[in-house]
Design a protein that fits this description.
heterotrimer; A alpha/beta (309); B mainly alpha (250); C alpha/beta (254); A: 309 residues; seven-stranded mixed beta sheet; 15% strand; C: six-stranded mixed beta sheet; four-stranded antiparallel beta sheet; binds adenosine-5'-diphosphate; binds magnesium ion
């Protein structure tokens, strides 16, 4: 035990520094030897949440609140919090403030989204429960959704109807084929890209039904969960609608091009028969295809052109 | 009369000139290095046991008394951890350490330098061509500034450990509750504030003791007087600095 | 060559020295004598700049040590060895470490050379065996001799002795006197001995300076100390001689 003074001093200082680093990380509730990542959530009201409060996932401490800032211009409160590196939070998870500040027990709770979802990336924004309740949202958005679907179908049928008409009148074939191709690719890309979304939308609708069923069950928590999920599904549906709108817009601009064009295409714009329903659209499409089968030579010279595209 | 009024100003001026001269020679590492190491052992390493003892008891008593004060109210047990840990980090670990060391280190330095002064050892150093201020004062003050934060960190660790231990042993609350409470209100600045305090206190205690010892007059009586003054005045200035830092930094 | 010119010094209301002038020549041994509290130590401390005068100046080899910067003063001080009244050994160190201390800081010697020089110095003061002992374990006379070994370790040009024999038994006093003489002769140092011990003065000094009533009352060669009609000096010298009694010069008054 006869160490030199240098060793004693060195040991004390090194120990002190280690205790400081480990202690600070320990009380900040960060894993002592690994790092953490940052997430952001925007709230309307944080009920007294403050920097240093714990973040819990399924009741387990997984990080700490780093800052709580009032964004006065946006009328929200931005909460930035750190989550331990080894805890992955799936997309679609919800952050919410829990506990009572009067007892000092305020914390940030995270309701995990479906575990099949990819994890949230560091720096991303996590969803928070938004204001109005389920029924409000349904009543608000119901008519809107219906009208949107209506207008999509409307636009589609208008476009295809116009095409069909043109086929019948035998106008500028070359141009018609090119336009047709455009419609086809657009539709294809829409259905291709949206396939996944549509499928999950349907899945989500199923969970809504399931949730609504368990709504009546005695499980007290399920009410909240249900509202969450329905909310989430509505968000998804909204996204789907946005995509459909984009399709509509594409079709619309196609129609505009036709409007601006000369000759037979110009006439298309004012044709009253554009207002047809989806059924008649498919009928006309069928007719077009049949015509193609029956009179291939009529289109033959233009086929090379089609292939070129 | 004017002498009485001017005496404190004279003391303040002498003190700051002394510190200025000490730090002016900070680059003459060769002069004070070996003393620096020795003083870090005497001021720091050898103080660890007494600081640890005091911190452990402070933490334990604080925990028991906080639990007692809160026993009838409708607050969760975790609050005890939320009170004990920041109290240790912000105030007690630094101030308890400073008070113990004002006696242990401050008195020692003042007595040592005072004896060297009255037995002409300081003159002997000077006459050899050595800068006695950089040789004697600088290493002591530097050692205080370096070792006090380390002692503060140990005091925090052991004080909180003492609180945890007594809480668990007396069945006041569980370690998990204690730690949860501590984390609930943990402010990242707390330990750094404590560190700033401990550095300040380390400087105050060692520099006042050096000043008192270096300018000791008379014989054994003068040494005794310097020693007492060093211990008392460093406690007073530690308290003043504590308040000043709290007002300025919190 | 040390020149003290019109030196004034007071501590608060107490005037200790008033208009003191004194020249100390190369190679001589000068005794500064006077009553206790007459200001001998104060005068000596001015010579190495431990005290600074209120008026007047002190020149060491033509350097005014009262006005030079501190760093330059430190250089000048390296030519001095000072034996303080109580020895002023560092009590945290052993005798050997005390003697080695100035060598470690101010010489470029290797550790082995330092060890050899320490042994040499302790041998010179006839204390070869006290190396590992701390000052507290030594008697007063031993402490003074170790302190002398430390003062001469760097082979100074000037050695100042502050009451080297006070409080010592006559035999040890004689040993110290012999050492002072030996150093003066062998190393050709200039010595200033502050003392009120006339026995020592007659043993070692070439000249004497009598400090009385805030200034130098009498300065002259040691053999002229009896050839005067000065009642003050006379009573001082006689008192010492009466006290010592056995001294050869005392037993054969002129
Ligand atoms: N640092 C000091 N402060 C105040 N008074 C002092 C100081 N040093 C010496 N004195 C006073 O100066 C006078 C001469 O002291 P000193 O030179 O030590 O006497 P001595 O001739 O016996 O060596 C004494 O009265 C002493 O009290
Ligand atoms: Mg004296």
């Amino acid at each position: 035990m006869n160490y030199s003074n240098e060793v004693k001093v060195g040991l004390s200082i090194v120990l002190a520094v280690v205790v400081l680093i480990v202690g600070v990380r320990y009380f900040q509730d960060l894993p002592i030897f690994s790092s953490s990542y940052l997430l952001t959530a925007n709230f309307e009201n944080v009920s007294g949440l403050s920097a240093g409060n714990p973040v819990r996932l399924s009741g387990v401490n997984v990080g700490t609140v780093e800052s709580v800032q009032l964004q006065q211009d946006e009328e929200t409160v931005r909460v930035r919090f750190r989550v331990n590196e080894n805890v992955l939070i799936p997309e679609g998870s919800m952050a919410e403030v829990r506990g009572f500040s009067a007892l000092g027990g305020v914390r940030l709770g995270i309701r995990p989204g479906p575990s099949s979802n990819p994890p949230l990336q560091p720096g991303s924004i996590i969803n928070t429960p938004s204001g109005p309740g389920l029924l409000d949202q349904l009543t608000q958005q119901g008519p809107e959704m219906t009208s949107k679907v209506d207008s999509v179908l409307d636009n589609t049928s208008r476009a295809t109807g116009a095409l069909a008409n043109q086929m019948e009148e035998g106008g500028d074939l070359q141009q018609t084929l090119a336009s047709l191709r455009n419609v086809a690719t657009t539709l294809e890309s829409v259905s291709g890209g949206e396939e996944e979304t549509l499928r999950s939308a349907i899945q989500n609708l199923e969970t809504i039904t399931a949730d609504l069923q368990s709504f009546t069950s005695e499980n007290s928590d399920s009410l909240g969960v249900t509202v969450q999920r329905v909310n989430r599904n509505l968000t998804r549906l909204e996204q789907n609608l946005a995509n459909l709108e984009r399709t509509t817009a594409a079709l619309g601009s196609f129609a505009e091009k036709i409007n601006e064009g000369e000759g037979t295409l110009g006439r298309l714009a004012n044709d009253p028969s554009l207002y047809n329903n989806l059924d008649s659209t498919s009928v006309q499409m069928n007719r077009l295809l049949r015509d193609l089968q029956e009179n291939p030579q009529r289109y033959l010279e233009d086929m090379t052109l089609v292939r070129m595209f | 009369m004017t002498d009485r009024l001017l005496a404190p100003l004279h003391a303040i001026g002498t003190y700051f000139i002394l510190m200025g001269r000490a730090f002016a020679s900070v680059r003459e590492v060769r002069t004070y290095w070996s003393n620096f190491i020795t003083q870090m052992v005497r001021i720091g390493v050898e103080s660890i046991p007494i600081v640890a003892l005091a911190a452990a008891f402070t933490g334990a008593v604080l925990t028991v008394q906080t639990a007692y004060q809160l026993q009838t109210s409708f607050v969760p047990n975790t609050i005890i951890g939320s009170i004990v840990v920041p109290s240790m980090m912000l105030e007690l670990a630094a101030v308890i350490t400073a008070f113990i060391l004002a006696g242990r280190v401050g008195a020692r330095i003042a007595a040592e330098l005072g004896t060297m002064r009255v037995s002409e050892q300081i003159d002997a150093l000077e006459v050899m061509g050595l800068n006695s201020i950089s040789f004697l004062i600088l290493p002591r003050v530097l050692a205080g500034v370096v070792m006090f934060p380390a002692l503060y960190i140990f005091a925090c660790l052991i004080g909180i450990g003492g609180g945890l231990g007594i809480a668990e042993a007396a069945g006041l609350l569980s370690t998990t509750e204690f730690i949860e409470g501590a984390r609930q209100f943990y402010q990242p600045f707390d330990p750094y504030f404590g560190l700033i305090k401990s550095i300040t206190f380390g400087f105050i205690i060692t520099s006042i003791a050096c000043y008192k010892g270096y300018y000791t007059k008379g014989g054994a009586e003068g040494v005794g007087q310097s020693t007492t003054e060093a211990a008392v005045q460093s406690c007073v200035f530690v308290l003043l600095a504590d308040l000043a830092l709290a007002v300025l930094l919190l | 060559m040390i020149q003290i010119e019109h030196l004034h010094k007071s501590f608060g209301d107490l005037d200790v020295l008033e208009d003191v002038s004194l020249n100390i020549h190369e190679g001589e041994t000068l005794a500064i004598i006077g009553h206790s509290g007459s200001g001998k130590s104060v005068l000596m401390k001015h010579i190495v700049g431990l005290l600074s005068p209120d008026k007047g100046r002190v020149l060491v080899d033509d350097v005014d040590i009262c006005s030079v910067p501190y760093e330059r003063l430190r250089e000048v001080r390296k030519h001095f060895g000072v034996l303080f009244q109580g020895g002023a050994l560092f009590d945290s160190m052993t005798s050997e470490e005390n003697v080695a201390f100035p060598l470690e800081y101010f010489s470029s010697r290797s550790p082995a050379e330092i060890k050899a020089r320490v042994a040499e110095c302790l041998e010179l003061v006839r204390m070869p065996d006290v190396g590992p002992k701390k000052p507290a374990e030594l008697s007063g006379g031993m402490r003074k001799r170790v302190a002398l070994a430390r003062a001469i370790a760097l082979e100074p040009k000037y050695i100042l002795y502050d009451e080297p024999t006070s409080g010592l038994d006559p035999q040890t006093s004689n040993t110290i006197d012999e050492l002072i003489q030996q150093l003066a002769e062998e190393m050709n140092v200039t010595s200033v001995v502050v003392t009120h011990d006339m026995h020592s003065v007659f043993n070692i000094a070439d000249r004497a300076a009598f400090l009385y009533g805030k200034n130098l009352h009498w300065v002259g060669p040691i053999n002229a100390i009896h050839d005067r009609a000065d009642p003050v000096l006379d009573s001082f010298v006689t008192a010492s001689e009466y006290h010592v009694g056995t001294h050869p010069t005392a037993s054969s008054p002129s």
